[in-house]
Amino acid sequence: MANATPNSLSSLSSSIFIISHPLPMASPLTPSHLLLAHTSSLTTLLLLLSTLVQIQGAKVGSIGVNYGTVADNLPPPSKVADFLLDSTIIDRVRLFDANPDILRAFAHTSISVSITIPNDQIPRLAKPNFAEEWIKLNIEPYIPATNIIRVLVGNEVLSTANKLLIANLVPAMQSLHTALTEASLDRRIQISTPHSLGILTNSSPPSTGRFRQGYDTHVIKPMLSFLRETNSPLMVNPYPFFACNNENLDYALFRPNPGVVDSDSGILYTNMLDAQLDAVYSAMKSLGFADLDIVIAETGWPSKGDPTQFGVGPKEAADYNGNLMRHVVSGMGTPLMPNRTFETYIFALFNEDLKPGPVGERNFGLFKPDLSPVYEIGILRPTAQSSTPRAHHGPASTSRSPSPMSEGKRWCLPKAGANLEALQRNIDYVCGLGLDCEPIQENGSCYAPNTVRAHAAYVMNAYFQTTEGNDYDCDFDQTGALTTVDPSYGKCKYW
Length: 495
Prior knowledge:
Blueprint: H1 8-12, H2 31-35, H3 44-60, E1 63-67, H4 77-87, E2 92-95, H5 100-105, E3 112-117, H6 122-125, H7 128-138, E4 148-153, H8 163-182, E5 190-192, E6 194-196, E7 200-202, E8 210-211, H9 215-229, E9 234-237, H10 249-252, E10 260-261, E11 268-269, H11 272-286, E12 294-299, H12 314-328, E13 344-346, E14 375-376, H13 382-385, E15 392-393, E16 411-414, H14 420-432, H15 452-466, E17 480-483
Parallel strand pairs: 1-2, 1-13, 2-3, 3-4, 4-5, 6-9, 9-12, 12-13, 14-15
Antiparallel strand pairs: 7-8, 10-11, 16-17
Catalytic activity: Hydrolysis of (1->3)-beta-D-glucosidic linkages in (1->3)-beta-D-glucans
Keywords: Disulfide bond, Glycosidase, Hydrolase, Signal
Family: Belongs to the glycosyl hydrolase 17 family.
């Protein structure tokens, strides 16, 4: 899907074999289905610590965006940088080149920037002198004003099957790191390279994931060793979109579904992304590199496609990207990588009208050229919502105004006898979405009584009120129930 190659669709189609078992349709999204992927036996103390980590992760912004420019109608980079800084929760971008105008535009914004070097430059970068010159020309003039955090050497290089590029990939990464070290920038800037899931020869079930033979020992293992030595992540481009069909769409979109059981481990997977990431993890573990971090360099869903294309539209795109954001910062991780957040870059910032290929290739954007959202997923800051044109509504945004008091109003509260650990998970989940949980914090209007049940009641209802008010939005793994009696008390006002 990257802008680096015109045939990105074909390179990504290699991931189609990843977990495509048929699944029946199910009811709309509930928080419980996101919580069901794997349960935790953590104590209440650890759960509270997990909440703090989760909220902190959401605040610092684990969500980034791929900023492609294959278009003739995009706003100037300075306007884009100001928009991301002032109006969105995005605080990191990935570029597909080292465009000096864009690098200058992000100066003094603190937004983290990753630069991608085009594939065709890789053979030259394997030469130390060229790598040193590249760093001097494309990095040093912009540091520290622009917060450059990574240099990505090519994109999906192994999927090109180009022997010259593949043979020079790791040497180029090493040369660039040496150049960074000589410039005293190696502790500030990482070197990595993104891969399509085509690097896997076996991925289903996830616990049996393995890298492609030939590449595994000659290219991937040396690369993983380099990443470990330089404290850099493995970067992958998982796209459930390219593996979905009419039977597993809910599974791909994080919607409620029966799930897929890993026949070897017995683990139940409730979404395709987790299965794809765990297949990569299993492959890393088989080579002895289970300790490396994984970054999602690209993932997304088109809002428009060819008339015969299945599962394409603003609703599906909003469901995938909205649920994706909540999932990767929730702290849940995956079944094989529990209690993790994943730095994730959504593809893409804009629809790009000059990209070749099918209609969908030009319609992966979150925003239109006028900076209005193609659909809403809660990526705009609350202050920006009122001044932004309305678009298609995806999953409930936590920045909506509370529902007004009206006749027939309902509130969502914990069921009598609901397990306290389950209620604590509800608190972790809702607060991790970024919803305002200050009222249940110390000195907050709903802090007293200081009990898990009381705090869960407030946040469960707050979540319910930000949705469309459907019964299933108060399910919470069967721990929630609706009432018509206003639970407000004293200064603690329930929406």
